[in-house]
Amino acid sequence: MTVLDLERIAAIRSDPARCTRAVDAALVDRSRPFLPEDQTQLYYTPGYALLDREQRIRYNQLFGLRVNEYIMMLEREFVDPVLRALRRRARRFGSASLVRELEAMREEEAAHYDAFAALNRRCEPESYAASDYWFMQLKPYERAMIAAMNAGARFLPFALWIIVAMEESSIGLATAMRRAGDTPLGGLDPHFVEVHREHAKDEARHIHVDVHLVQACLHTYPSGWRRINARIFMAFMRDMTAPKANGTGARVVRQLVCEYPSLAEHESRLVHGLTTLGENVEFQRSLFNRKLTPLAFELYDREPVFVHLTDVLPGYDRSARAA
Ligand SMILES: [Fe+2]
Ligand SMILES: [Fe+2]
Hints:
Blueprint: H1 6-13, H2 53-93, H3 96-123, H4 140-151, H5 156-179, E1 182-183, E2 186-187, H6 190-217, H7 223-240, H8 248-259, H9 267-275, H10 281-287, H11 294-302
Antiparallel strand pairs: 1-2
Helix pairs in contact: 1-6, 2-3, 2-4, 2-5, 2-8, 3-6, 5-6, 5-7, 5-11, 8-9
The structure holds fe (ii) ion (2 copies).
């Protein structure tokens, strides 16, 4: 994939049609799914067969809310501190145009957070009355990592490698939603799809800014420090791609069981299914693969320290990297 130069990125950003615009508030259709089924976790487990059509639609909606929360958490807790901490390095090792794009990106991410929080609130006003988060809760080590990122720039290579992959995933999700058409559960809610489609417009530029940031900043870290960051990155990705019995995905399942008490007898089976996904190659390849996250994979290709990354991300095919 060709990386856009900073002038081209700025030109695209000046075209309102290619920037995320605020979507008019609309009611969501509670009879429709929010996501393609293969963008949910239970879909990849035997337990999915235990749900009837109505339960699958409700699970799909709840998981869709959790997906929005995940994007919000990432953009506020990860992307913003990293971009803030990178300003000085971007100025010193990059260029004025890189700093300008970095600042624009921060503003855009703040607007994205608000858009997803508002969407979730429109879907479930009561559940989001007191907090923007219903399912997401940061783990202690994630909080520690965020505190470290806020305190200094030393963990930034680790964070940049994550951000590129996540931003590319959010574009892939919007594309999958747009192409979904009539799913076995029916057509997706058009308002939900529209918010994601708009979000992907800014992200399509951000992934190129990310690569410029990596190029400007990464070489400024000694190779030993990059190796340590690579280890942290792999531990983080391994953890993030392996749903836990007490994780956010399981919380979604427990909410479904609350709403459908007839599922209570299957709760442990449903949750256990999620805990096997860390070893489920089909699920793992659905999260990250060269088609979905090409720029992230190109960055990983360039790092000798990622020679064993496939052990953590089965969708990462190092052998397919360009010579
Ligand atoms: Fe965003
Ligand atoms: Fe972004």
